[in-house]
Amino acid sequence: MCPLILKDVLGEAPLHKAAKVGSLECLSLLVASDAQIDLCNKNGQTAEDLAWSCGFPECAKFLTTIKCMQTIKSSEQSDGDHCVPVFRQKRSFGSTENTNGKRRCWIISSLIF
């Protein structure tokens, strides 16, 4: 089983945990690693639902955007005659050390048409 879809006793995957604490950085890395964004916990909540309910609208909007992009991509694959432009992303990963000695991951995305 892929570690990105392992769930705890609450039925929460790493994506749920990142959304609950408002970590856009972690959400970005998990999504870039193909984490499933539509997984529900035992209460039937997705990571997007948790981000909204925990007061992290930036994270919720990010997940909403990713969900929409995946829906468009999925509909394009199922309907070969329908052509909708999809944005591809170039990503650059790396890390830096902040002032308290902890390493912080970063992701840079640029849209390509």
From TrEMBL:
The keyword Repeat applies. ANK repeats lie at residues 10-42. One of its GO terms (cellular component) is cytoplasm. Keywords: ANK repeat, Repeat. Gene3D superfamilies: Ankyrin repeat-containing domain. SMART domains: ANK (SM00248). It comes from the Eukaryota. It holds the Pfam family Ank_4. PROSITE patterns: ANK_REP_REGION (PS50297), ANK_REPEAT (PS50088). This is Uncharacterized protein. It comes from Marmota monax (Woodchuck).
